[in-house]
User: Fold these one by one.
Assistant:
Number 1:
Amino acid sequence: MGYKAALKIWRGDAGAGQLADYDVEVNEGEVVLDVLHRLQATQATDLAIRWNCKAGKCGSCSMEINGRPRLACMTRMSVFSPEETLTITPMRTFPVIRDLVTDVSFNYAKAREIPSFTPPPEVKPGEFRMRQEDVNRSQEFRKCIECFLCQNTCHVIRDHAENEGAFAGPRFLMRVAELEMHPADIADRREIAQDDFGLGYCNITKCCTEVCPEHIKITDNALIPMKERVVGRKYDPLVWLGSRITRRGAKDTPAVPGGR
Amino acid sequence: MTQATEAPARTRAQISERTLRKDPWWQAPRLVAALLTIWVLYATVRVFTGHWYYVPKYHYLTPFYSPCVSGECVPGSSALGHWWPAVPPIIPYAVVSLVFVLGFRLTCYYYRRAYYRAFWRAPAACAVREPHAKYTGETRFPLIGQNLHRYFFYMALVIAVLLTYDAAQAFRGPDGNFGFGIGSLILLANVILLWGYTLSCHSCRHITGGRLKHFSKHPVRYWIWTKVSALNARHMQFAWITLGTLMLADLYVMLVASGALSDPRFFN
């Protein structure tokens, strides 16, 4: 049973734009992306949307639907009442290329700054063996589809663009945590997690966890454990004393040179 | 020769509305602010009252006055003795524990989320613009002090042991032998839930096993970590329930101590 949905869609480029009104047919079982495609096919042929898999696995169709950061392909129209007007805007944190498509290259720049996986030099490819319990934690973080909804919703950069240089965002702090928990990694990224990637800016209000379409517990399983590791490296006098006595002082790994 | 033109600088979408959310996002922070304010007001009044904190007949001591170390504490309420003869009224009798209990809750990862959202509105809700012009998070004084949470956790363990002793004392009847009433059960439930809150702490999760890279090399710590992690998933619930049980336990002891209520006894 179809109905006509009222849509307000942000149209524009280079930051200048406005909400445009449309009425678009909706059929049973459809998601927001289906309706946007129908709009594109019938009324707004120049509407720009980024999409790919339509299955919540490529992370392309991130946008804000009624003010909430979501994947358009995973948002069923049935969660809205037929009388409701849907307001669809691009992700607010990233620069607009056109309409609902944003430039997310900020995230790729941040990814390049993180020292990559560093196995012990004496271990040759194929030699290392890991038990399942050692990799469970990292595997949760590998579910990330890089939709960047967490980056978009994090108020540290969403509401304060001036922090973009100092703060890597939840997705990349989670990447640091993933490598720090990896049993075959010998680098120590705790110092740079705080000083270069801005872990201290995170005030654990859990918005990244709330919007994650893969239901990764970013705050509880990555950011807070990483904060605790940083405390052990930088703020805990007992741990510092213990490392002096046992002479197991940490060798900090620097951020990738030229990354910023 | 043609001159290359640069692409215009890209900027964020200029949307003036603070948020376009249509759900009642303001309800949760308001509710949290109201509940925390009520609790803090109640606790503040009670710790400075200086009366009705101990029931000598049944050995009930409210958690807000444990350990009662001031010389003014009523006989029987000072399990650790009197550390000083008397204190000015602005210092609670149990100041030695209240500082750490307050610090443990203030630096708790769950409460931080709750009060940053409810009071500081940074942010009040997800995708709702916060009202502050600048934001430095927990990188500077005083909020960098949140990193002391694990030390408050160590002290919270000691205080939990002390409250367990108090709960055990509440299972003594008027003659000093075993006996219990409703108050004993309330104090027991309170201390069990307090242990749940303390052991589900994120710092506890890190210390017991989270800091390891190789779980397979430390099977015992890994096992403990899995149990603490299971508790940790309920940390928020423990945080709220224990606020309620602390208030209930104190209120009950106050009512019995003041004579407003008689404690129904099951045995002795």
Number 2:
Amino acid sequence: MTKNVIEVEGLTKVFNRGFVAVDHVSFSVKEGEIFGFLGPNGAGKTTTMNMLITVLKPTEGRASVLGYDVVKQAGMVRKVIGVVPQEYTADEDLSGYENVMLCADLYGIPKDVAKRRTLELLELVELTQFKDKRVETYSGGMRRRLELACGLINTPKVLFLDEPTLGLDVQTRAAIWDYIKRLKEEYGMTLFMTTHYLEEADALCDRIAIIDHGKIIAMGSPSELKESLGGDIITISIKEDMDVSELIRSVDNVKEVKKENGSYRIKAESGEVTAPIIIEVLRRRGYTVTRLSLTEPTLNEVYLEHTGKSMRDVEESREAFITHRITLRRARSR
Amino acid sequence: MSEYRPSILRGLLALTIRELKKWAKEPIILLMAILQPVIWMGLLGKAMNINAIFSANSLSNVNIPDISIPDYGITIPSLLIKQRLLEAFDSIGANVMQNVFGVADYFSYMSMGMISMIVMFTTMFSGMSMVWDRRLGFLDKVLSTPVSRAAIIFSKVLNAALRSMFQATIILALAVVFGLKISPTFSPVNLLGIYAAVFLLSVGLSSLFLALALRSTRHETQMAVVNLINMPLMFASNVFFPTSMMPEWLRAIASVNPVSYLTDAIRQLTIMPLDASMLVTDFIYLGVFAAVLSAIGITLSWKYLTR
């Protein structure tokens, strides 16, 4: 039986001005899994993580990491976790090597062990060549990798990643995903990550919790969540002016058909297989398909499904806004 | 594994060295740190030339008529009177300077005040750097590690103190170059006293500024607060002018202002005759100030660093 590494029960954070950032959240993370917190900006992802890593005090509820309470045994929690924050916290004026060594100092790792481990980690994230260069000269992807190395310096049992690929380009993002997967395999760590990219949660996480307005609104594996959305959307137009809704509905895997402005909006499982079958069925009955499009579930649709709104005007503090801008600017540095 | 015990000292040193490295790696900041005292001393110290006011030069345009005393049938030529008057004024001036400032040379007086001033302006950045660390996410990162919360605060305090001491050294060296008139009671051991006094005030002031910055997220606010505190602290003290010439109420403020005590200690250790009992009072006051404010800083950081 796998044991739970993180246990959270009724965790709540109310900020000074009465803003409820996290509202009675409960979940558990099993040993060795990658657990993702998915949600829009301001949903309460980072606030939840900050309570787990002992940086924020919960207003209500309890949480434990490896059996240590995050409030009463905060000191123990800090020793066994690694944190890769959303922001680029490495010091611009120091070299990559100096930055990782500073992290080692903060954990009190003996100098000789620290030196060996720092070099190992820099090798792992492929920064050995740049270890003596100032971080100022690093690209966004290199900075991310350096943050990873820092977060791993104390050989943590649980690694927390806050928006690990925020602001990075597609190639760099894929490379970071590879590192994260390798870490999990090589060290058998448990990972807790937050993200607002569905494809990221999809590529990495064993289980996902979708959070919005401080509440978990759905939880499960990526495939479970996608299925809960009811599958892909196929849009079809035909030349003939006839209602073929019933005919389409008779095709296997088709769940729902709606006629909108002369075209059919079809919800179907495994759309890439179902769409050709629909075309074939229509063709056999003598209809001519003039247009077809296939849309797989996106982040937007997940939210549409669960919250009914696609765009968000989240109230954001000025501080958070500026921090966000600094993070993005550093991510884009070359 | 994770069984290492992070000692307070290790964390404190690591964080302090980070700050010092950042400081030293930025040549412009270092250059500014050296240039700033040069400018202050050169411009302020030499421009506010109070000595010149009390010297014969300031009487050079005075018109003095010949004085004749008909009863005795003598006439004293104006030139002679003027010469005597100027001589007298010179010696009166020196006396006034000595009585008012405690030293005859105003440059010496004010350049030692500059050390206090630079302590104020160096420590005020400790709060600012706290705000920046919070904003950049570095503070949260450090808070998630087992490093002692006290080490986080004290690294800033220690950094401010070391920088103040470095700046004080530069000022002292420059003052000597520019013509500091050192008192006969000066001995090289006094330098240690100066460092100790500068250290104590730096610890006290930076703890104060850090305590104010603990929850602050905007450096604009911090800037305003710092200016509000620093300016009165500087003028309601003996940095530029002796407190004995101030109105009663201002003197009352100056007499509790720790900046006055640092300035007095430094002057006694350099340009004025040393008065042991006064010096001890200065050190006790500075010591208590540092101890109380750093205790407050630690208590507050324990409570408020984690939101």
